[in-house]
Every structure is written in C-alpha cells, then in structure tokens.
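TASK: fixed-backbone design
INPUT:
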C-alpha cells in the first residue's frame, strides 16, 4: 500500500538517498534540492507540502506539492491552485505502479484542501518525458499549451 508521510528525522536520510535512473535526472531535481526549495518557498509566501512516498514500510519516492505562487514565471492561476512541483520514484522501485498510486494519494491529499480550496491542480513536466505525460493524462490532467521553466503545464480541474 502506498502512503505519503511527512519528512522526519528518522526517514530523511533514506529519502535523500532515493534517486532516479541516470537518464531520468534531466527530468527531476534531487530530493535534497527539492527539500531546500521547500524552505525557500515557505519563507517567500508559498505553502509547500513535501512527503516521502512509502510502499508499506519502505520509502520509495518523494513528492512535493505547493499551494500558491512559486516565485517563478508561472501561470496566472497559480496563486490559488495546487502544484505538484516534484514527483519521483526511486530507480529500483519503478515499474511497480508506485507512481500512479502516489499520484492518486497526492490528489486525495490535495482534495482535503490543506492550504485552502482551489479549482485546479497543475503539474509541470518535460515534454520528452513521455511516461510522465501518459500518467498525468490518464489521471485527467490536460496540456494547456503553456510553459513553466521550459516545461509543459498540465492542469486538472478539481
């Protein structure tokens, strides 16, 4: 069973050691960089929600959700939307359905409105990351034709 858990003193090192395959590094920042981004976002008015993704009792990935603006050149609706800014599954854990299950858990968390209600969730990704595009589309995200940091933006109406 896939669950999202807060980063703690007990699980932080295991989460920092998770990494994608070499050829996927161009698609996602390291977990250490992402956690540092959470700090920067929080002191600049955003509300980040970083989680370790667990398969039963084993850490297998990381997801970072942000409510509000990120400080980058983002879409106009970002200020009152949720963004899944990072999602990764460790290279040794891929191909087991964990990415889909983690996205489903992430969307369920977002729909609890932890930072306030919103009408949409958006996710940026590299156009050439076809597995990500297929996953997001299968969950109802639609490409807007907009770009964010040279990435495609897909939006899900909540």
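OUTPUT:
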């Amino acid at each position: 069973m896939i669950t999202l858990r807060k980063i703690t003193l007990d699980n932080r090192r295991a989460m920092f050691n998770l990494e994608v395959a070499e050829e996927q590094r161009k698609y996602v920042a390291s977990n250490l960089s992402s956690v540092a981004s959470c700090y920067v976002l929080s002191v600049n008015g955003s509300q980040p929600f970083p989680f370790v993704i667990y398969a039963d009792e084993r850490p297998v990935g990381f997801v970072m959700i942000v409510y509000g603006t990120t400080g980058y050149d983002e879409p106009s609706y970002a200020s009152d939307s949720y963004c899944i800014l990072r999602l990764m599954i460790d290279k040794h854990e891929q191909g087991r359905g964990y990415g889909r299950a983690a996205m489903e858990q992430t969307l369920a968390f977002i729909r609890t409105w932890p930072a306030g209600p919103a009408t949409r969730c958006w996710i940026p990704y590299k156009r050439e990351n076809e597995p990500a595009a297929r996953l997001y589309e299968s969950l109802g995200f639609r490409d807007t034709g907009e770009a964010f940091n040279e990435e495609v933006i897909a939006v899900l109406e909540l």
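COMMENT: The longest strand covers residues 58-67.
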